[in-house]
Amino acid sequence: MSLKLLTEVLSNLFKKASTVEYPKQPSLALQEHRGRHYPDLSKCIGCSLCALECPTNAITMNPLPTKVKHNPRGIYPVVEYGKCIFCYRCVDVCPVKAYITTNYFENASDTLITSNELSLETLPRTESLKT
Q: What is the pLDDT of residue 18?
């Protein structure tokens, strides 16, 4: 038995690798891959349904930095990707289809990664009210 195992080990030493060396050779995500998602604040009405529906409580509602006409409560969802299981329930439950979905999957980090910056980039500049 040990001779058979040794033969197997030696034969595999000289074979080409069967896996891709990530991140040296980045892999491509399929178009339908569920990656990072974030709310488009030009559509979000601040209803909190996404936060209520999230099974891992990865979504918190934060106050908007400026007031917008279509969001009377003045709050918006922030997704914490470290807690998110990418079930996309928030995307499905949104009554105004405010979530932007991507296939970006590289979420490993030693710092907290949230949708905050991505969301704030979508905040409408022209609709802002004077506060």
A: 74
